[in-house]
Amino acid sequence: MSVAGLRRTPLHDVAVNLGGRMVDFAGYEMPVQFSSIIEEHRTVRQAVGLFDLSHMGELAITGPEALSFTSHAVVSDPSMLEEGQAQYAMLCNEDGGVIDDLIVYRTDDAYLLVCNAANRDAVLAHLEELLRQGDFDAGIEDRTARTALVAPQGPRAAELLAGLTDAELGALGNYRSMRATVAGIDCMLARTGYTGEDGFELFCDARRAVGLWRALYDAGQRLGLRACGLGSRDTLRLEAGMPLYGNELGLDVNPYEANLGRVVKLDKGEFVGRAALARVQQEGPRRKLVGLVMLDTAVPRHGYPVLVDGEQVGAVTSGTASPTLQKMIAMAYLPAERASLGAEVEVVVRERRCRAEQVKLPFYRRPR
Question: What is the CATH number of domain 286-359?
């Protein structure tokens, strides 16, 4: 723990030495930016950015009935995973509210749940309670403290890694992982990310994190690599229409409202929240997450009211000035009957009503 009472990742000193502006994020002292958020954002879109994500939670479900327990806990269907595959998933409560969104990796020894740092304690407590209530021959192993996570993201990420590993990256599809040696360091190398670009997430022993970062950082200089902070990660994921827990997701939101009903596998059998989610699927969600592009010059921010015919019907969940699109963009929840592509709404920005158009998400898709 630091003197400020915040946790530090194994790469804290590296971030400070690179000039990172450190902030409190989910109880961790993390870099929000190193240069400018716009520069880091554009680096990820055009070349490769390097992120420290070691604050994320890693919870391994182990034991003979690890699959049965994981399937009971999440709304997705982990039985579809082969070793080395991953899937986007959610933990929901009995009412269908989202406790956290996460990625489930099937590894050689466990189902690894990678969750948001701010929710790790809540996720762990929820899983432990489910284990106490159920009759599963399974266990939960919190690997967070001993795991570091380094993420090169961008169109030149594969080129960067190709010079540091013998792994066959061309055979590693999206949401796939493999054991690999990168710069002489044993890693779980996954083709996953939260930026809307091609990229990788490298899980390694926390004691090897500094060596891995330095190797990637040094090798990436010829490719235009920059160290990137949480600020650009947020603008990147927003352009890509990816939800953020606490903004687009929460206990008061179900997956269907967030346009993520595809993740819910009602036909896999019983799981936590199934009855509530089946009702929503049958009746339809009462509200929907929509994309907004501002027609008037104004930057929408989290919490700004959204009006239709002068009446507030929702609020902005996330908003920014998009560096890639050169537009002001936002996401917001609207009543289902008000959610209509092309329809106009108003966003109240600093007491001024500003016009916006509903658009299809995501705002940005990377070139294929």
Answer: 2.40.30.110
